[in-house]
């Protein structure tokens, strides 16, 4: 049996629930537990790219403190000239990247090509005027609330953009799919759950997703959530919260006993 949190006020290393942890509770209690205890932390090039682009958009002044851009074009050109068909697979390239990672001093490493693509994406945001219309206001605003009657469980989140007087929350997303398929991505990645969590945290009147494709021509779009979308998120929230309470607060079952059930 997995070790259980000593207090209902704390889950593993987290003192609160969030959209990130709750969406994993929808998969299984073990996925939730691995996340809050730091056993398995999502990582990878795609997440590094997303984090870097978020920093470029919302915290550009501190970008260089968080990220290190490796200038790889010269070594790639040299390797190709030397006959390498897959330069990034060569020992020389890997040794070069390892040395550059040491120079990063703990910062997240981004490739030169990734950085160039981010700049191209940002130019599309600016050309559309979204940097002055939809991506301004209070940025990276934190909010925490205590859920009433639920073992003093805290809920926490960070809004990309929050207009407190107009009561508007906006969240920025990137997608590798065509933008007209974002509604399917929103369901797949539980963005309806996120919208409901942020409704609790910020009590907004309007919630919008500002979305951009990560492939040329980096098309941008704005999607406003409907009441139906929000209610679907509420259903997921109730389901995820029930899982957390059942397995980690009331401790009525071992997470290993969980069976995911569905209908095809």
Radius of gyration: 21 Å
Poorly predicted regions are 3-8
How many structural units, i.e. domains?
A: 2
CATH-defined architecture of the largest domain: Alpha-Beta Complex
Termini, distance in Å?
A: 31 Å
Write a compact overview of the structure shown.
With 264 residues, the protein is of the alpha/beta class. The protein has helices spanning 19-25, 29-36, 45-58, 63-66, 73-81, 91-103, 112-127, 130-133, 182-188, 191-202, 227-249; strands spanning 67-70, 108-111, 138-146, 154-163, 168-175, 206-213, 220-224.
What is the fold's blueprint, element by element?
Elements (H helix, E strand, L loop, with lengths): L18 H7 L3 H8 L8 H14 L4 H4 E4 L2 H9 L9 H13 L4 E4 H16 L2 H4 L4 E9 L7 E10 L4 E8 L6 H7 L2 H12 L3 E8 L6 E5 L2 H23 L15
Parallel strand pairs: 1-2, 5-6
Antiparallel strand pairs: 3-4, 4-5, 6-7
Structure, described:
It is a single chain. The protein has 264 residues and is of the alpha/beta class. The protein folds into 2 domains: 19-41 and 131-256, Lambda Exonuclease, Chain A; 68-127, no CATH class. It contains 11 helices and 7 strands. The protein has helices at residues 19-25, 29-36, 45-58, 63-66, 73-81, 91-103, 112-127, 130-133, 182-188, 191-202, 227-249; strands spanning 67-70, 108-111, 138-146, 154-163, 168-175, 206-213, 220-224. A 5-stranded mixed beta sheet has the order 3-4-5-6-7, with helices on both faces. Strand 6 and strand 7 (220-224) form a beta hairpin. The longest helix is centred in the C-terminal third of the chain and has 23 residues, at 227-249. It is globular. It starts with 18 loop residues before the first helix and ends in a 15-residue tail after the last helix. Mean pLDDT is 89; it is low at 3-8.
């Amino acid at each position: 049996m997995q070790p259980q949190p000593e207090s209902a006020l704390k889950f593993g290393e987290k003192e609160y629930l969030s959209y990130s942890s709750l969406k994993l509770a929808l998969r299984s209690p073990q996925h939730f537990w691995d996340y809050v205890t730091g056993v398995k932390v999502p990582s990878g090039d795609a997440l590094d790219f997303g984090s870097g682009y978020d920093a470029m958009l919302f915290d550009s002044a501190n970008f260089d403190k968080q990220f290190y851009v490796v200038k790889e074009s010269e070594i790639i050109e040299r390797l190709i000239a030397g006959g390498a068909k897959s330069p990034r697979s060569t020992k020389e390239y890997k040794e070069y990247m390892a040395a550059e990672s040491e120079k990063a001093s703990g910062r997240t490493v981004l490739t030169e090509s990734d950085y160039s693509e981010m700049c191209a994406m940002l130019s599309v945001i600016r050309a559309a005027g979204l940097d002055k219309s939809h991506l301004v206001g209070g940025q990276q605003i934190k909010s925490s609330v205590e859920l009433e009657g639920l073992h003093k469980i805290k809920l926490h989140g960070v809004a990309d953009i929050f207009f407190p007087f107009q009561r508007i929350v906006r969240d920025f997303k990137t997608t590798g799919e065509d933008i007209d398929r974002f509604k399917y991505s929103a369901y797949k990645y539980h963005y309806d759950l996120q919208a409901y969590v942020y409704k609790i945290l910020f009590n907004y009147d309007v919630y919008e997703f500002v979305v951009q494709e990560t492939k040329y021509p980096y098309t941008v779009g704005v999607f406003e959530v409907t009441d139906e979308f929000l209610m679907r998120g509420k259903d997921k929230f109730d389901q995820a919260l029930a899982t957390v309470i059942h397995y980690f607060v009331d401790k009525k079952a071992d997470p290993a006993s969980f069976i995911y059930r569905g209908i095809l």
